[in-house]
């Protein structure tokens, strides 16, 4: 049991370095006529969530295996406290719980997104359908709404290091990205400077795979006086390094820079 749990949580962690991990639990129902279809509803919702970029969706078969191995017993998975407990077992950041019931000929689906760490309900939404065709039509928006309030982890936050060959010089950069667009830039210049490392405060932003860094150094070195980077970055699959082309060479020649997380 412990081996299975360890393997699954490790697999989830490897997939969620830059995204929140989300698990969809089986929907509950009090309506006998749809008791056999609530699992299908949960599966369809899971499939729809897979197409959303800022989250990683946990395989429902893994959820079932862990609950079985842990002998988890619950009369209702739609309870936030239960969702929090299961979420901790499976290593999820957020858990989606829901109920589906028939009122006359109308299907009523209610779902909530629960943050595992705090037990807080991040979002709650409802959907009513008279036909399965209407259910399929409304499902994409239903799924997007459920994860719209999930915070996106900041993939850059922390300290990164790079050695950049800048024309005739080789400079060592260390950048610490902090919250609210603040950063600290430290550079150990090569060649024409013997005063050691210089440091300054700057700003940064990221969006659409473009990283912007701005900083000014009190230095006589021309290439460092006004640092302004705006470049497309490529993040490694592991989330531990990223690369971008910077205009640091002589005559504005682009230089490839690879930063590694410290």
Main beta sheet? 8 strands, antiparallel, barrel
Outline type? elongated
How many helical elements?
6
Number of strands: 13
Order of helices and strands: HEHEHHEEEHEEEEEHEEE
Secondary structure category: alpha+beta
What separation lies between the terminal Cα atoms? 35 Å
Helix coverage percent: 25-40%
Rg computed from alpha carbons, rounded to a whole number of angstroms: 25 Å
| Unreliable stretches | 1-18
Strand order of the largest sheet: 6-7-8-9-10-11-12-13
**Overall pLDDT level:** 83
Please indicate the percent range of residues in DSSP E strands (runs of 2 or more): 35-45%
Protein topology:
Layout (H helix, E strand, L loop, with lengths): L1 H14 L4 E5 L13 H12 L5 E3 L2 H10 L10 H11 L3 E10 L2 E10 L5 E9 L2 H16 L10 E9 L2 E9 L4 E7 L9 E10 L2 E7 L5 H4 E10 L5 E7 L6 E8 L1
Parallel strand pairs: 1-2, 1-3
Antiparallel strand pairs: 3-4, 4-5, 6-7, 6-13, 7-8, 8-9, 9-10, 10-11, 11-12, 12-13
Helix pairs in contact: 2-5
């Amino acid at each position: 049991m412990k081996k299975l749990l360890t393997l699954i949580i490790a697999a989830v962690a490897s997939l969620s370095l830059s995204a929140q991990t989300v698990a969809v639990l089986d929907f509950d129902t009090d309506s006998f006529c749809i008791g056999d279809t609530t699992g299908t509803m949960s599966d369809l919702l899971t499939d729809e969530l897979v197409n959303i970029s800022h989250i990683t969706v946990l395989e429902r078969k893994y959820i079932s295996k862990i609950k079985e191995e842990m002998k988890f017993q619950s009369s209702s998975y739609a309870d936030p406290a239960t969702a929090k407990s299961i979420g901790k077992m499976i290593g999820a950041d957020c858990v989606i719980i829901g109920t589906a019931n028939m009122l006359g000929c109308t299907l009523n689906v209610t779902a909530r997104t629960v943050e595992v760490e705090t037990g807080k309900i991040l979002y709650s939404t409802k959907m009513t359908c008279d036909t399965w065709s209407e259910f399929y039509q409304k499902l994409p928006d239903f799924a997007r709404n459920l994860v719209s309030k999930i915070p996106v982890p900041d993939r850059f936050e922390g300290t990164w290091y790079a050695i950049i060959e800048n024309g005739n010089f080789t400079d060592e950069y260390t950048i610490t990205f902090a919250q609210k667009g603040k950063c600290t830039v430290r550079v150990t210049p090569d060649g024409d400077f013997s005063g050691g490392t210089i440091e300054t405060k700057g700003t940064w932003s990221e969006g659409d795979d473009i990283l912007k860094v701005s900083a000014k150094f009190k230095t006589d070195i021309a290439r460092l006086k006004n640092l302004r980077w705006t470049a497309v970055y490529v993040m490694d699959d592991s989330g531990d390094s990223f690369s971008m082309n910077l205009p640091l060479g002589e005559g504005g020649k682009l230089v490839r820079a690879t930063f590694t997380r410290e």
